[in-house]
Design a protein that fits this description.
heterodimer; A: 95 residues; mainly alpha; flat; B: 262 residues; alpha+beta; four-stranded antiparallel sheet; 10 helices; 10 strands; elongated
Chain lengths: 95, 262
């Protein structure tokens, strides 16, 4: 990067996970017919990852183990249900 | 080792055939005018029967996603690239080659659109404190109330401070709505293509300040974009607007979403 103007507006930190996720998981070409993952709700997933990274132990203490048994992630039609659960989780975790 | 037993191919993105890609971990699989940037991966890791479980494993997911991004960023230093979405996996080299050859013209068109360009991200936030004290507040009601709060005491001061807080919140919301599109338009004017992404909530962005713009810009002239960014930053500094630049990214937001199998 040659421009000082541009450098001035960089945070100087490595790319934030949220910015990487919203691109790598949600954008870029999708090729029909290959092994395909369910298109995930990126925001939901990012919050989940942050929650997990920040407080996996705390979550386990509270008996939260959605990442083991997640209808949304395991391809079921549980998106709405999960969103409700996540909201409850976030409240419990004080997010 | 038969093809059926062998590992699969993970496709990161597509470049023009003959591009100089200097990364020992990935191979260039050329078909006609295009080449896939790919590496061999154990298929069992990406099998649809286990993938959902892996996606629930935050450590696995973050590592793989960052690796995907890193490969493409390395490629981007020396070549224009059409990025693929996460987990684009072919079971055999033949299937990968068939895709590259059958969709060659679509891929070439996508490459032409991003040739010599990178994606830059700009997020804009408003700092509430600076918004309050800066020149942005033109609302007389807020000014009057601020003065009264400063002069009041006790319970009355508390109630008026609450009211002031609400007024400022409303004013801030209105300001954010009004300024987002003009900011985006100015940055779009210094780029070749532009798109507004969904705003990130504070728990996602990791910042307390509310995001007012999350833009992605396809840029060939980076110094020109930098100048536009600096000018915008200077114009809106008094209003508490903060601009944050990310990238250069592979142009994820400027390639066609879906290339169907022929």
């Amino acid at each position: 990067m040659s421009s000082r103007d541009l450098d001035h507006y960089r945070s100087g930190q490595p790319a934030q996970l949220a910015d990487v996720l919203e691109r790598v998981l949600d954008k870029g070409i999708v090729i029909a017919g290959d092994i395909k993952i369910e298109l995930l709700d990126i925001e939901l997933l990012t919050v989940k990852i942050r929650l997990l990274i920040a407080s996996a132990d705390k979550a386990r203490e509270m008996g939260i183990d959605w990442w083991q048994n997640d209808p949304f992630l395991s391809g079921g039609n549980g998106g709405k249900h999960l969103e409700d659960r996540l909201k409850a989780l976030e409240e419990k975790a004080g997010l | 080792m038969s093809v059926e037993d062998g590992p699969g191919w993970y496709l990161y993105g597509v470049v023009a055939a003959g591009s100089a890609v200097d990364d020992g971990d990935v191979s260039l699989v050329s078909e006609g005018p295009v080449a896939g940037v790919a590496s061999r991966v154990p298929l069992e890791e990406f099998d649809p029967s286990v993938l959902p479980e892996r996606l629930g494993d935050a450590a696995w997911l973050e590592q793989k996603i960052r690796a995907h991004e890193q490969v493409l960023e390395d490629v981007l230093r020396s070549a224009s690239v059409v990025p693929c979405r996460f987990c684009t996996v072919y079971q055999t080299e033949d299937e990968l080659r068939r895709f590259l050859s059958e969709r060659g013209s679509d891929l070439s068109a996508a490459l032409a659109h991003v040739e010599g360009r990178v994606e830059l991200g700009v997020k804009a936030f408003v700092d509430r404190e600076r918004f309050m004290t800066g020149g942005a507040i033109r609302n007389d009601a807020i000014r009057e109330l601020s003065e009264r709060v400063a002069q009041s005491e006790g319970g009355r001061a508390y109630l008026e401070a609450r009211r002031l807080d609400q007024l400022i919140t409303d004013e801030l919301m209105q300001f954010k709505d009004e300024i987002a599109e003009p900011l985006h338009e100015r940055l779009a004017g210094a780029s070749d293509d532009a798109v507004r992404l969904n705003l990130q909530r504070p728990e996602v962005s990791g910042r307390d300040d509310e995001m007012l713009l999350n833009g992605a810009y396809l840029v060939s002239d980076q110094p020109r974009f930098g100048t536009a960014l600096r000018e915008l930053g200077a114009e809106h500094r008094d209003s508490g607007v903060e601009l944050e630049l990310t990238g250069p990214w592979p142009p994820y937001n400027f390639v066609p979403a879906v290339l169907g199998a022929a």
